[in-house]
Amino acid sequence: MKKVVLSILLTFSMLHSGEISIAVAANVSYAIEVLKKEFNVIYPETKVQVILGSSGKLTAQIRHGAPYGLFMSANMKYPEVLYSEKIAVTKPVVYAQGALAYLSVKKQDFSAGTMFLKEDNIKKIAIANPQTAPYGIAAVEALKNANVYDAVKEKFVYGESISQTVAYATTAADIGLIAKSSLFSPQMAHFKEGIHWSDVNETLYTPIAQGMVILKRAESNSEVKAFYDFMLSDKAKAIMKNFGYKVP
Asked: Which domains, ranges and CATH numbers included, belong to the chain?
C-alpha cells in the first residue's frame, strides 16, 4: 500500500494549478465523463483528474494520504467514516441513489425473479466484492432476503469493483448483479431490457444512497468546492437521471 500511495503522491505533485483530483466510485465511471464535460462548460480552466475504484479501496487510499480533493462514494458509510475521522470537512450528502440490475449476454427469463439464479444453466454469477464495494453488499443482501443466497453462493465470481463485475458478467459469468447505471452507457446499448437485463427488486436491498464529501486537503480549494456544488445542481442531477440513478 505504501508504494501505491507514494506513486500517487509523486503523480499528483506534478500537477499544475487549476487541476483537481476526485476519487469516484466505479459505478459512476459511466457518467463521469459527461459530468466533467458539462462542468467544463462552466469552468473551462479547471482540469478534473478522476481516480476510479471501489469505495473501500479509495477510502483506504485517502486514509493513507492520497491527495484527492473530493470523494464520491457508492454509499454513505465510507464518507461518514472519513467525516467522523476529520479526514473529510463537509458532512456527507447524497448526490444520487443507485440500483441493482441483472445482466446477461444470453437471453434470460426474468419472470421468476431471483429464483432463476438457482437454475442449472446459471453456473457463474458475477457480483462485486462485498468487502470493498457497496453494490456487492447490496447484491448479497438482496439474495439473502430472497432466500436464494445459500443455494447460489458457490456460483459467485467476485469483481473488485462494479466495473470489473460488469466485465465478468459479459465474459466470465452467465449473469451478473451490477449497477443499473452501467446499462446506460453507449457501449451497453445493445443489451435489451427484459431480454438481457432486468431490475433487481428494490424491496430486497437497502437503498443505495451514494455520498459525497470534500476532503481536508481541499478545504480551501475553490475549484473542488465548485465541482462539489455542480454535483448538487439541476444539470448534474439530470445527467445522473439519464444514467439510471434516482436523485435527491
From this structure: 2-97+207-242 (3.40.190.10), 99-204 (3.40.190.10)
